[in-house]
Specification:
The complex is a heterodimer of chains A (171) and B (249). Chain A is mainly α. Helix content of chain A is 67%, strand content 8%. Chain B has helices at 51-58, 81-90, 107-117, 122-135, 151-163, 181-196, 208-211, 240-245; strands spanning 9-18, 25-35, 40-44, 66-71, 74-75, 92-95, 169-173, 200-204, 216-221, 224-230. Classes of the chains: A mainly alpha (171), B alpha/beta (249).
Chain lengths: 171, 249
């Protein structure tokens, strides 16, 4: 959450609730609603590390709100963020360990493990399809997020298929 | 058992082996399945698993070496080729990966032909065609030839052709297999829409995204059903959808 909040502040100062709304608008209903408490905590940490600065603004009928802006150090951190590529996604290690170890335990069957995992992925895939159908068509960023999740799941499902092909041959 | 509705499609013990060059290919090795009216069933699996052969058996495009098929409770064992051809006009609509449109007929004629062959009066065939093409976003393309259309458009014409006689059962064999991702989404959207209106669909696909539009997914491996899962949209455990969407720091 730290860098996305910095990125939202690059455009200009904002307070916590505004940042939550910005994030929601950008990512659409697809993205799990950010928790406003978590946003305030993260903003506090960012301020402590000198990446942003907060300024109390008085409000007539409500408690003061804190408006944050990016510091030079914050801008630098953001540049560095954009500069580096991210790590590759990883194979679901926990499932792989189950698959690899099942035969030695005599407690689970590999094909049954694969079938159960596939059902889990397919149900999630179905949820994503529904989400894609309800999300505002014009929000391209939200659709790209959903499509990314679907393509990852597709790859995981393809890999399950490979596992099943290989392991059924051994039987 | 009398209160159990008759399945629209039922198969038992289906076997099909292809004999060509080299070793015989056991495409379907003892498959039984039942599809209820209104169900949307996807059959997925790796290429070469025999899922297309299964669909061809279900549509009478190939005959099984063993096993039986019932259409709406009626045994199809004794059906001749001509009878199957008639069933494919009236009771079973089929769409294929490569559309299989008649290339020297216009879009309108491609869609109207099966209606006319089924004995529908020309005027009604035309009305049906107009309604379907409009529904599928193809109004204005009636006079085009299939070759002038994009893949996605051709598949929509094929869908209109398959549905023009209101068959209770729609069989789809990799309908998005030769489409780009936009075309795939389009096919997915349309299949879902027809399903919501009660169309029974059996879809063969290797694409899990497409399969997830169905409410039941059969995993097909090496000529057999490996799993038969009803999707209820709730992953059995874990974070599910938010787990795959949340961008973590």
């Amino acid at each position: 959450m730290r860098l996305p909040l910095l990125a939202l502040l690059a455009r200009g100062p904002a307070h916590g609730y505004e940042l939550k709304q910005d994030l929601e608008q950008l990512l659409g209903s697809a993205y799990p609603q950010p928790n406003v408490g978590q946003i305030y905590v993260t903003l506090g940490r960012l301020e402590k590390s000198g990446l942003i600065e907060g300024e109390d603004v008085e409000q007539s009928s409500r408690p003061n709100k804190k408006v944050y802006h990016l510091t030079d150090a914050g801008r630098e951190a953001l540049r560095a963020w954009f500069e580096v590529p991210e790590d590759e996604p990883r194979v679901r290690d926990e499932f792989f360990m189950k698959l690899a170890l099942a035969p030695r335990t005599g407690l689970a069957e590999q094909i049954a493990l694969i079938n159960r995992q596939r059902r889990q992925y397919l149900n999630t895939m179905r949820d994503l399809s529904k989400l894609a159908a309800t999300e505002n068509r014009d929000n391209r960023i939200a659709h790209l997020l959903i499509e990314g999740a679907m393509l990852h799941l597709q790859a995981d499902l393809d890999w399950l298929e490979r596992c099943q092909e290989e392991l059924e041959e051994l039987e | 058992m009398s209160d159990t509705p008759t399945p629209l499609l039922r198969a038992e013990g289906l076997v099909k082996t292809h004999y060509g060059e080299g070793a015989p290919a056991h495409a379907v090795r003892g498959v039984g399945l039942s599809v209820a009216r209104g169900e949307f069933v996807a059959v997925t699996g790796p290429s070469g698993a025999g899922k297309s052969t299964l669909l061809h058996l279900l549509g009478g495009l190939q005959r099984p070496d063993a096993g039986r098929i019932w259409l709406d409770g009626e045994c199809a064992d004794s059906y001749s080729e001509a009878r199957w051809a008639m069933e494919r006009r009236k009771r079973i609509g089929i769409v294929f990966q490569f559309f299989n449109l008649v290339s020297n007929l216009s879009v309108a004629d491609n869609v109207e032909l099966p209606a006319l062959l089924a004995g529908v009066p020309p005027k009604r065939a035309r009305t049906e065609r107009e309604e379907l093409l409009t529904e599928l976003g193809l109004a204005g393309k009636e006079r085009s030839m299939p070759g002038e259309l994009s893949g996605g458009e051709q598949q929509r014409v094929a869908l209109a052709r398959a549905l023009v006689n209101h068959p209770p059962l729609l069989l789809a064999d990799e309908p998005a297999g030769s489409l780009d991702s936009k075309g795939t989404r389009e096919v997915m959207r349309l299949l879902s829409r027809f399903h919501q209106r009660g169309q029974t669909i059996v879809l063969v696909t290797h694409d899990a995204r497409l399969a997830s539009a169905a409410d039941r997914v059969i995993s097909f491996f090496d000529g057999r059903i490996a799993d038969d899962a009803t999707l209820d949209g709730t992953p059995s455990r874990g974070a599910g959808i938010s787990g795959v969407l949340e961008l973590r720091d």
